[in-house]
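Reading group handout, session on sequence-to-structure problems. Before we discuss, look at one worked example. The prompt was deliberately terse, the way you'd type it at a terminal:

> structure Membrane protein

The input record follows.
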Amino acid sequence: MTITTIAYVLAGLIGAAIVFIGARFVVAPDTAAAGYGVRLDLAEPAARAYASVKGVRDIASGLFVFILMASGATHLLGWVVLAATIIPLADTAIVLRGGGSRSIAWGVHGVTAAVMLVTAALLLIP
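And the output record:
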């Protein structure tokens, strides 16, 4: 198995996970928010709307990964994954700042950022 193949598998798993998370925010926002690390008051219509917004954007972000994979744009995919690493890094800070679970902040979002950095590095190897 080549480094590029490993990187593509990792990128595909990242894309699939982001689509799944996005769909969960649309379909089951309370469960998704708990998994994110910050609870929502779904009695508030605005909270449900924000969950849907996040969900749709996550789905689109995951699909961008698949589009780049399908095009065979390995280096471009690497740069996009590297740039997108800011999302789980910011998510870590948001959960911590919002008084959410430290284990979710670091164990979910922090680990995701690390996996994305490794994936980007593998994709950007000449």
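Points for discussion. First: The longest helix spans residues 45-71. Second: The CA atoms of residues 57 and 66 lie 15 Å apart.
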